[in-house]
Design brief:
The complex is a heterodimer of chains A (737) and B (104).
Chain A (H helix, E strand, L loop, with lengths): L1 H25 L4 H30 L6 H6 L6 H6 L5 H22 L8 H24 L28 H16 L1 H13 L5 H31 L10 H26 L3 H24 L14 H21 L16 H33 L6 H25 L7 H25 L6 H32 L3 H11 L1 H25 L2 E7 L4 E4 L2 E13 L4 E12 L2 E6 L2 E5 L11 H5 L2 E4 L1 E3 L4 E9 L5 H15 L7 H24 L4 E9 L2 H18 L3 H7 L4 H9 L3
Antiparallel strand pairs in A: 1-10, 2-3, 3-4, 4-5, 4-6, 6-7, 8-9, 9-10
Helix pairs in contact in A: 1-2, 1-6, 2-5, 2-6, 5-6, 5-7, 6-8, 7-9, 7-11, 8-9, 8-11, 9-10, 9-22, 10-11, 10-13, 11-12, 13-14, 14-16, 14-18, 15-16, 16-17, 16-18, 17-18, 18-22, 20-21
Chain B lengths: L2 H18 L1 H4 L11 H25 L5 H28 L1 H8 L1
Classes of the chains: A alpha+beta (737), B mainly alpha (104).
Chain lengths: 737, 104
């Protein structure tokens, strides 16, 4: 099986190169070459699917003769993590990139097989070139194993056991976060490729947008899910107390999300009004470049990040690709400026297109801020020779004002009609949401701590405005539907949403975003956090809560080679029990590093935090702990010496001797664990009260749900595809509001 | 890389070459099943215009556009839609492939 996967991956390089070359040849007029290029992309999808399936089977069968499997899985790795272990490695994630690209490319080329004869050859050339680049990176690992990019490297003899999955990645969110994020990154290549095709072929009307808009929305949806899952993982697993640390890799996923959001709005203006053509092609080029940059940051190790995978050899080529994409696209756009002139001008400042423009400027502004803060270490090093970082304080100062305005425009946009609206009609629509916003502000000033935090107060009020505006939109839609056709409110709601999925799906997304922003503001501005050092029996106050360290816990998982030290915390409020939190710290065997001792290896190697958490709609109680093992150093070293004294002279290749050594190590660890339970050292705790955090995930889920509503083809669109004569259609369509 | 992988690679390559080269083994024919890009553009503009008209009507019914705002807007949008339809009709009459589709 493994040779089949390797063969498919090797063959996929000439196939991708051929697709690009044949498409370019076909672009000169002979359509057979374009058909052949399209088939090459389909073949690429099949070849890479086989490679992925073969690799997954190797993981499932514990085939440790495959180096990737031996390095990232083990016989004790749970089934779900075996399936997802592929992308925890560089080679696996490159394969994932190329595979998703080939599937998405096949899908879009199948859907456009009868359309866009002028721009499709160029789009295929771009997609084939991108696929060839990533497959080439993987094959580079064949000639240079240190690149660690070839997924089918073999080990002979195969080890009896694998190293196992990185402990930090053993979390459900982390299992699906990478493919979601990568799918988002990769799928933006589809509108990018068609934009380049449109530029080369000078077909700069809205037809390339029409064919790729859904792909952009799918990319945005995947990216949203990926960003949310990453934040959720950070909150649950990293033990620092938050969900967003303005880390370079986190920011790298946020930047294309911001520009992708701007793109999804601005293409509507081009579709309807023939405006913003330069802006749209520039936005998609920038979005896709930032997707490549995100991959580069994870893989290059150029910026420090808890999510980066260290320095690797693929960073350089990725940087070259980014440079080619940016420079090539800018040159192409510059050469087509005359064709990119807007067909119309904005009629009125009070129009939806104006609001979209402002919203675009805010999103791009946010992206610039995040870019500047993320790359400041490199910029400062280039200018001053010293690498310095701006860190979270910079982002927390600059981002909120822009985010607050964005929330406001999230509510204003849906209220304003296209082209122009009179001030009189605008006032009629705006007055209720404005009143809700004002009432929210008054209530918050009177009843909450928000009066001391003007930015939060503004955000809550604007979010209330947006939610009231969106609710009003649904109410008006339902009311119109009922006036025309009667029926119950739920039936009218269902009908109005299903007949206008793009519009109401968008509104649902906006509502989700507004809710998530409220939660982000509340959990950032009104978080209570305390760092405590407690021994069993001691207690401390955190906000309104009393936290009591009841007892230590210990657990050994022989299969996972994991030792866990934890704590039981009883939380009360006004003497009433609220919840029991069980934070813990996991220590993993450092056997894979011979420099570490058999026992000290547990404490000097990889550790992970298991957060103790009680989620609630009003707020979360969150606790992480770290036992203070400094006083235990002598005891740990003694245990090392005792184990080594017994196992030092055992023969290296004897399986029985290896089992005996494992047993001795197990006994020593057990003794240490029992000692921890009976006479624990003090532990350091971080206990947070995080208001409304759960609404970030709820808001995110609502947003993703809205995107799915917008993506679903409407019955009207399906009917339209089979409709006949245009004149008859116009009459019928116009009567169908 | 072992021999088995190389042999398999050769076999897979042969299969791919057979599949991919199929269109090249056919004689060059007309592009009748392909959409005329000018017509495709007009179709996209027409759909967008229909959506604009429907949205404007919905906005009027919902009170987001006053009757005074909506009337000239609707007239303008309908005039633009008819312009697009006229252009579509003209192009389709010129295009033999499209005419054949309509006749068929």
């Amino acid at each position: 099986m493994v040779p089949l996967g390797a063969a498919c991956l090797i063959v996929s390089l000439p196939v991708a190169l051929y697709a690009g070359a044949a498409a370019l040849r076909g672009g000169r007029g002979d359509r057979r070459w374009v058909d052949s290029a399209r088939r090459a992309i389909y073949a690429l999808g099949v070849l890479l699917t086989i490679a992925v399936v073969v690799l997954e089977i190797a993981f499932l069968r514990n085939d440790f003769s495959v180096e990737l499997v031996a390095d990232h899985s083990s016989t004790t790795t749970p089934l779900g993590y075996k399936l997802t272990a592929m992308w925890s490695s560089q080679a696996g994630s490159l394969l994932l990139w190329a595979w998703v690209l080939s599937i998405a490319s096949s899908a879009v080329l199948y859907l456009t097989r009868h359309r866009h004869r002028e721009l499709v050859p160029w789009a295929i050339a771009v997609l084939g070139g991108l696929a060839a680049f990533f497959i080439g990176l993987m094959l580079f690992g064949l000639i240079s194993p240190s690149a660690e990019s070839w997924a089918f490297s073999r080990l002979d003899p195969a080890p009896a056991e694998g190293v196992g999955l990185n402990p930090l990645l053993r979390h459900p969110a982390m299992a699906i976060h990478p493919p979601m994020l990568y799918s988002g990154y990769v799928l933006f290549s589809i509108p990018f490729a068609f934009a380049i095709g449109a530029l080369v072929a000078r077909r700069l009307d809205a037809s390339w947008i029409r064919s790729t808009r859904r792909f952009a929305l799918v990319a945005w949806t995947f990216l949203t899910i990926g960003v949310l899952l990453g934040a959720r993982w950070s909150y649950s697993e990293l033990g620092w107390g938050g969900y967003w640390g303005w880390d370079a890799v986190e920011n790298a996923s946020l930047m294309p999300w911001l520009l992708g959001t701007a793109f999804l709005h601005s293409v509507m203006v081009q579709e309807r009004r023939g405006m913003l053509k330069v802006w749209n092609v520039s936005l998609i080029v920038a979005t896709f470049s930032l997707c490549l940059l995100g991959t580069f940051l994870v893989r290059s190790g150029v910026l420090e990040s808890i999510h980066a995978f260290g320095v690797s050899k693929v960073g350089g080529p990725l940087l070259v690709l980014i440079a080619v994409v940016i420079l090539g696209s800018v040159a192409l756009i510059a050469s087509r400026v005359d064709d990119l002139r807007s067909e119309r001008r904005i009629d009125s400042l009070l129009s939806r297109e104006s609001i979209f423009l402002v919203n675009n400027l805010l999103l791009v502004g946010l992206c610039v801020v995040v870019f500047w803060g993320t790359f400041f270490p490199l910029i400062s090093e280039a200018v001053t020779g010293t690498r310095s970082s701006v860190g979270a304080p910079f982002f927390n100062r600059v981002v909120p004002p822009l985010a607050i305005l964005l929330v406001l425009f999230t509510g204003i946009g849906p209220l304003i009609a296209w082209r122009r609206v009179s001030w009189e009609a605008a006032w009629k629509i705006f007055r209720w949401p404005a009143l809700v916003a004002l009432a929210t502000a008054v209530l918050l000033v009177a009843l909450s701590d928000a009066r001391g935090d003007p930015l939060s107060l503004a955000l809550f009020s604007f979010a209330a405005f947006a939610l009231a505006a969106l609710l009003g939109e649904f109410a008006r839609g339902v009311s119109v539907r009922r006036a025309l056709h009667g029926g119950s409110v739920p039936a009218a709601l269902l009908a109005v949403v299903s007949r206008n999925r793009r519009r109401y799906g968008g509104y649902i997304v906006h509502a989700g975003i507004a809710i998530a922003f409220i939660a982000v503001a509340a959990s950032s501005a009104f978080q209570t956090t305390r760092d405590l050092r407690l021994s069993p029996g001691q207690s401390a106050t955190v906000g309104d809560y009393e936290v009591d360290y009841v007892e230590p816990t210990q657990q050994i998982d022989a299969g996972e080679q994991r030792l866990t030290f934890g704590a039981v915390l009883e939380v009360t409020r006004d003497g009433e029990p609220v919840t029991t939190l069980r934070p813990s710290r996991n220590y993993y065997s450092g056997m894979s590093d011979p420099a570490l001792g058999p026992i000290s290896g547990f404490f000097e190697g990889e550790t992970t935090s298991e957060v103790g958490r009680r989620d609630g709609l009003g707020g979360d109680l969150w606790a992480a702990m770290q036992p203070d093992l400094v006083a235990w150093q002598d005891e740990i070293r003694q245990a090392d010496r005792r184990v080594l004294a017994v196992t030092r002279d055992l023969p290296a290749d004897d399986p029985e001797a290896a089992t005996f050594a494992n047993d001795i190590q197990g006994l020593a660890i057990r003794a240490l664990a029992e000692s921890y339970a009976s006479d624990p050292p003090p532990a350091n705790f971080r206990v947070n009260v995080n208001p409304l955090v759960v609404w970030i995930w709820i808001g995110g889920a609502i947003g993703v749900g809205g995107a799915l509503v917008a993506l679903w083809p409407s019955p009207e669109a399906r009917r339209r595809r089979v409709a006949a004569a245009d004149a008859a259609r116009l009459a019928r369509d116009l009567s169908r509001a | 890389m072992d021999t088995a992988a190389l042999l398999l690679a050769a076999l897979v390559l042969l299969a791919v070459v057979w599949f991919v080269s199929d269109p090249l083994r056919r004689s060059r024919g007309p592009d009748d099943d392909l959409e005329d890009p000018r017509i495709a553009d007009l179709e996209a503009r027409k759909e967008a215009k229909y959506r604009e008209i429907r949205d404007a009507e919905l906005d009027r019914a919902a009170g987001k556009l006053s009757e005074r705002d909506w009337r000239p807007l609707d007239a303008e949008l309908r005039a633009e839609a008819i312009e697009i339809l006229d252009e579509l009709e003209r192009l389709r009459a010129e295009s033999p492939g499209e005419r054949a589709k309509i006749d068929g």
